[in-house]
# Entry
Amino acid sequence: MKPRPPTIRPRPALISARSDLQVSFEALERLTGKQYDSIDGLADDLPIASPKPATRDDWVNLAMTSSPSIRYAEAGVDVAKRRGHRAGHLPTLNAYADYAYSDNDIDALRGHNENVEVGVQANLPIYSGGSTSASVRQNTYSLESTQYDFEDQRRYTTQQVRSLFTQVVNDVESVDAQREAIVSSRSALEATRAGYEVGTRNIVDVLNAEQSLYESISNYADARYTYVTDLLQLRQQAGVLSLDVIRGTNQWLRDSKRVSLDLADTQRRGSPTDDIGARPTPPTP
# Structure
């Protein structure tokens, strides 16, 4: 009887990666209202540069004048002020005009009546059962609430802009570090393979070195995508994320870097013929 070949099952990390990929595609479908089977990837020559302006304070000042959230909160304060927190105790002055016409069909001269009234009416609230005072207190508290909301939004935006600016700067350094890690891992793999050929290293050492190289490649890709998303979020918080910025980012997407979602393959857990795909080609730093 011919022995059965061993069952090849995907590694736990591969299972988790496939699950995350499917969840990400579903999140994209919810965001856009369109189902995607694949998306383009970032080009290898994507420029990684520090954000401009180059200081946190410049980004914070930009957010104070351009952030939609801050402008919305500021508009709420203006509306509350226009309502007037003591307007209920002030006199009001109204102009009015009235015209009345009637016809009793007696004759053309005596059968109609016209009345025109024009005037100005002043109203001074003296006492209305406490409703005026209650309305004034309500408007006062509403104004204070909108002022607190505005200050909270201003502080929140400031904190977000500062944090995101720091993250983007760190992302630039992280991309450089991960690029150097690829060079180091590749050199270590070549040395391990040379040792294996002369008998000083075993196959496990070679496999570990290969795993280290591809982990460096994965970390490098994650660092580049994190840089792009953090930079877009920084622009969003500062209120300078425009269609031109989005189009400029899309120009660095390449069809050759396409990532596809194969639902049939993704849902085939533990298949004997499960194919993890070809090994990726390490990018040239």
The chain is about 60% helix and 15% strand. The beta strands are 38-42, 92-103, 112-123, 253-260.
